[in-house]
């Protein structure tokens, strides 16, 4: 059973690992395909569901030597086809554009997880055009198509600039057929519940955003709120932590478990630390349970032999239709 660096007894496993054991599921790594890079926790927003607790006062920022080490490793990793850049607001990192441009020159698909409002901040006036020129795939957070729900989760006066940013991106060709500029949206539930069916919600988004604002996009990703960090604190304050965990456990889906993103993804922290996924990074749970940095490995292919560190928050990725940075899994 390849769940940790050692073959542990069932009694020593976490409840999530025991669930995998009971289902007869072995989750081994498959060849690494996606390098997810958190370039810092600085953000112009402080969203209630943010699992990295990003915000305007955070000072953690990836420095240039770390960016250069990432590019060095990527240059020798042809099987890694996607560089998924996240934050914080990734665009606020002063080395963001170098990472984007150089990763693109290596033939990688570059994704920018954009909060939309950042496109109107000082110094970001030409960022949307830069992203279009570089052919960057934009994955934009928009937890609803109504002002009330968006601002409950993301703060006051966030909805209008989010809509204006989507219209700006559409004007550059994003989300439009034949341009090659992909624009995907991300939905998170407002509270302690599983997301609705992804395909059905996508059609609702498409109709509402199209009819009301003339906005088009390619895909909608539904992502389950993970019971960690800010969302966990919210659950604890409302006395709903245990009930939410039970909801996730009761909805465990073996098919979704087989598709979890940590099997073919490596997450890199702003300081070069390595993790199995973005959620483990938020919890400072290192790759396979053993702390290492980009400078401790000789190649990205080395990760293919690593175990995966699982804990009980992993129920969030395996509940219902499943959840990952690419949306539903089943």
Can you describe this structure?
With 330 residues, the protein is α/β, with parallel strands linked by helices. It has a single domain (28-224, 260-307), classed as Alpha-Beta Barrel (TIM Barrel), CATH 3.20.20. The chain has helices at residues 15-23, 64-74, 96-105, 127-134, 147-154, 159-171, 198-213, 229-238, 241-250, 254-258, 278-282, 315-318; strands spanning 34-38, 82-86, 109-114, 137-141, 183-187, 219-222, 265-268, 274-275. Strands 6-5-4-3-2-1-7-8 form an 8-stranded mixed sheet. The relative contact order is 0.17. Residues 1-11 have low confidence and may be disordered.
Summed up, what is this model?
By secondary structure, the chain is an alpha/beta fold. The chain has twelve helices and eight strands.
List keywords for this structure.
330 residues; alpha/beta; eight-stranded mixed β-sheet; 12 helices; TIM Barrel; 33% helix; 8 strands; globular; disordered N terminus
Q: So, the CATH homologous superfamily?
A: Aldolase class I
Strand order, biggest sheet? 6-5-4-3-2-1-7-8
Structure classification: alpha/beta
Low-confidence stretches: 1-11
Radius of gyration using CA atoms only: 19 Å
Strand fraction: 5-15%
Write the layout of secondary structure elements.
Blueprint (H helix, E strand, L loop, with lengths): L14 H9 L10 E5 L25 H11 L7 E5 L9 H10 L3 E6 L12 H8 L2 E5 L5 H8 L4 H13 L11 E5 L10 H16 L5 E4 L6 H10 L2 H10 L3 H5 L6 E4 L5 E2 L2 H5 L32 H4 L12
Parallel strand pairs: 1-2, 1-7, 2-3, 3-4, 4-5, 5-6
Antiparallel strand pairs: 7-8
Helix pairs in contact: 2-3
């Amino acid at each position: 059973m390849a769940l940790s660096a050692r073959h542990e007894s069932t009694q020593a496993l976490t409840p999530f690992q025991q669930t995998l054991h009971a289902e007869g599921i072995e989750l081994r790594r498959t060849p690494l395909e996606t390098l997810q890079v958190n370039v810092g926790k600085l953000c112009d927003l402080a969203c209630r569901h943010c699992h990295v607790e990003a915000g305007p006062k955070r000072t953690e920022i990836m420095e240039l030597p770390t960016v250069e080490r990432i590019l060095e490793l990527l240059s020798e990793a042809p099987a890694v086809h996607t560089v998924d850049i996240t934050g914080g607001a990734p665009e606020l990192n002063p080395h963001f554009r170098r990472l984007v441009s150089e990763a693109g020159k290596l033939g990688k698909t570059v994704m920018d997880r954009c909060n939309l409002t950042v496109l109107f901040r000082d110094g970001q006036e030409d960022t949307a055009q830069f992203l279009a020129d570089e052919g960057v795939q934009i994955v934009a957070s928009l937890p609803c198509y109504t002002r009330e729900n968006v601002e409950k989760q993301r703060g006051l006066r966030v909805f209008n600039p989010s809509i204006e940013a989507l219209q700006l991106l559409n004007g550059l060709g994003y989300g439009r057929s034949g341009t090659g500029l992909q624009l995907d949206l991300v939905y998170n539930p407002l509270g302690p519940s599983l997301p609705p069916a992804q395909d059905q919600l996508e059609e609702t988004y498409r109709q509402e955003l199209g009819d009301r604002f003339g906005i088009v996009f390619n895909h909608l990703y539904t992502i389950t709120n993970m019971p960690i960090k800010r969302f966990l604190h919210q659950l604890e304050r409302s006395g709903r932590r245990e009930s939410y965990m039970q909801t996730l456990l009761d909805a465990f889906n073996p098919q979704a478990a087989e598709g979890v993103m940590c099997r073919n993804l490596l997450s890199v922290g702003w300081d070069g630390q390595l993790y199995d996924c973005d959620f483990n990074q938020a919890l400072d749970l290192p790759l396979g349970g053993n702390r290492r940095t980009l400078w401790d490995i000789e190649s990205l292919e080395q990760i293919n032999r690593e175990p995966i560190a699982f804990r009980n928050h992993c129920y969030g990725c395996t509940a219902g239709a499943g959840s990952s940075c690419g949306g539903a899994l089943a």
